[in-house]
Amino acid sequence: MSAGEVLLGVLALPFLVAAVIIPILLLDGFVVQKLWNWFVVEQFNTAKIPYAVAIGLSTLAGFMTRTFVWKPAEREEDISLWINYVIGTPLLTLLIGYIVHLYV
């Protein structure tokens, strides 16, 4: 690996991180906002939260509770497991919350 390839990799890293992390934050915030507005607002007589606040709450909760450890992928299955965790978990949570919300 040449020095130019290493430099290109280092320079591209922030863009790669932004391309992955920003959509995750947006999805997590959407799920938190929906679940909050469906279940917390009426039950505890509180205000709905805006999308930006939901993203902040999701980020805070993730910071305090996430235990997923990223290891460099050696196999394609590792990447698909990571994608399922990052995308599948919020979407499944939203689906379950929506179904429960219909009956509350």
Written description of the protein model:
The chain is elongated and about 60 Å long. The model has no long low-confidence stretch (mean pLDDT 82). It has one domain. The protein contains 3 helices and no strands. The protein has 104 residues and is mainly α.
Walk me through the topology.
Blueprint (H helix, E strand, L loop, with lengths): L2 H41 L7 H15 L10 H28 L1
Helix pairs in contact: 1-2, 1-3
Brief overview, please?
The chain is 81% helix and 0% strand.
Question: What descriptive keywords fit this protein?
Answer:
mainly alpha; 0% strand; 104 residues
Q: Let me know the number of strands.
A: 0
Tally of separate domains: 1
pLDDT averaged residue by residue: 82
Q: Kindly name the structural category.
A: mainly alpha
Which stretches are poorly predicted, pLDDT < 50 over at least 5 residues?
Answer: none
Computed Rg: 18 Å
Shape: elongated
DSSP strand content: under 5%
So how many helices?
3
Cα-to-Cα separation, first versus last residue: 58 Å
**Sheet with the most strands, sense and barrel status:** none
- H/E series: HHH
Please estimate the helix content. Answer: over 70%
